[in-house]
Amino acid sequence: MISYPDYLQLLPKTELHCHFASTMSAQLFVELARKHGVTLPTEDPDVLFDFTDLRDFLVAFRYAHDVLRDPEDFERVAYEGVRSAVADGNLRYREYAVNPQYFFSRGLTYRQVIDPIVAGLRAAEADFGVGFGIVAAINRRESADSAIAMVEQVIAHAVPEVVAIGQDDLTPEDTEDPTRFAAAYELAARHGLKRTAHVAETPFATPDAVREALEVLGCERLDHGYRIVDDPAVVALARERDVVFTVTPVSTTICSRWTLDEGHRIRSMIDAGLRVAVSTDDAMFFRTDLGREYREGLAAMGVDAATAKQIALNGIDGAFCDEAQKARLRADFRAQFLALDALLA
Ligand SMILES: [Zn+2]
Known about the structure:
It contains 16 helices and nine strands. By secondary structure, it is of the alpha/beta class. The protein has a single domain (4-343), classed as Metal-dependent hydrolases (TIM Barrel, Alpha-Beta Barrel). The strands form two sheets. A five-stranded parallel sheet has the order 1-2-3-4-5. It has a four-stranded parallel sheet with strand order 6-7-8-9. Helix 9 (182-190) links the parallel strand 4 (162-168) and strand 5 (194-195). The model has no long low-confidence stretch (mean pLDDT 95). The chain binds zinc ion (ZN). Zinc ion binds next to strand 1.
């Protein structure tokens, strides 16, 4: 027999919203910083990741990209990140937001970033059976033209593993402003790339950001979206389009200061009939992992086993892989659910 928290941790999972640099372990981050002579404010992970708000976090997020320079750095982060997530949370499939713009400014080309990541993830897929896709993330701190130039690179190189565009960081005004990048999204759509966006997350964002991401950017999936519950009309729109929201319960507590309980916005999204899939977003920085997001996050919000299983399946429905891969994942998940249900005390 197993406890309910153990059951949640052992459920098979996908992860659709994690930023590549954030899948590093703190130990590897410090090791790579030493290798490249990057001075960190401290090498003590307990202090290094002591954020008080989103801006603080974003400063650390930016310099984490500084330690990724050689092909073997990218490959190692890719491979070891899968190995940890399988051990910590029974990961079966993952999509990574990779922001090429950070690396362009450090002199690397698109292929110098993407190829070693794909190599590391392919090696991990061979060893752990975890499939993957890559979401090229627009750096919202850069201009709309820079976003278009990045999407042009994605299209020109056509790496089959890069299946979508998304976002990271915030605009220089610390806003979300989805429509600023409308032209980049339109270009991506014309070339068959899927689309997701970070919206309705920050304190000054409104549910309108969800509407704009759906209606202007044409997103098939959305990241965060917590403020949607403030507007029933936008909830209705997202339900009608069957949008999957990638939500990050434990990861988001530090910046949002929301208590993880039955009144949490993610629980309200579930109760409103919205489809959520759970992710870590920035595991290293927020000292979380995929197992913990389910084990602590879902349990604290009072999510029952049937709903937790549906959340795991939402992570397949919302994935940007093909239908054959989704069917294989569903069969694998259902078999594991049966075995775990039999063990649940
Ligand atoms: Zn994110």
